[in-house]
Amino acid sequence: MLIREMSETREVENLCERATKSAETRGRKFAHEKCDIRTEFQHDRDKITHCKAFRRLMHKTQVFISPEKDHYRTRLTHTLEVAQIARTAARALRLNEDLTEAIALGHDLGHTPFGHTGEDALNELIPSGFHHNEQSVRVVEMLENEGAGLNLTFEVLDGILNHRTSCKPATPEARIVQLCDKIAYMNHDVDDAIRAKILGEADLPREVTEILGHSPGKRIDRLVRNLVEHSLNNPEIGLSPEISACLKQFRTFMFEQVYANQLHAKERTKIKSMLQLMFEHYMQNPQKLPTEIQSRMTDDPAHAVADYIAGMTDRFAQKQFREIFMPAAWEA
Asked: DSSP 3-state assignment of 28?
């Protein structure tokens, strides 16, 4: 028996009934040779961690734009924190950890440079709209691997596409990632906001801290414990009504006091202007785009240009902007 088959057998024996078993995957768009060692979801996890889009997350903004200090989160550290928190919850609920991890590691691959400000800018520029969850699927289906994509399983693609609050994922593992994404970003973003002196721990709503705790670590622990305890004997994965309402209040506070903070409004305006100028430049000069991007200009020019800009890191976007619009220094 192959090692992969033994792993599949252990899943059936050890995971709970509602867990998604790798041997029962709904498959991939294109046929492929299965690995002798890894299950299908383990294979997907490895494909994601070895792709170029994953590596670029290291130099993409989470909340604070181009931070000078080393301890602020990036899109990559956010991704790793989501994966860790989600695996903890999945293990406690006897769900498929490999599927959970693959979804978590891939959920933000389509994020733009400069965080949600970049996403908002592209959303205003593209007639069909731009949403990072849809772009993440686009990355793994048609942009990575020289246009061939990663050929991921249905379950991983579904989890990546449906990790936003308004979506309804098809598996309990994807639902875990959907919740743990919020648990992670709200708590580490407030940690970074305190580090940036935008607010202090005492500024957080008292109703939130009294229920969830007075530090990011305590709040994450309280939320994960509630997620596990409430989901153990319920048909749906989720938080208790009280904790869910508390998290919603916390999220509203974060959007009002951190994500829309006026200290950064001026910088957000600069970023939107920069990306708009770059977008218009590439639309008018498609020959300046990489060859693989040029090949897609005939089908959907706006989205092809957005593919290129969305794939940029913060520093590469700044470099490209300088090269396009800033005069070069005179060299004798």
From this structure: strand
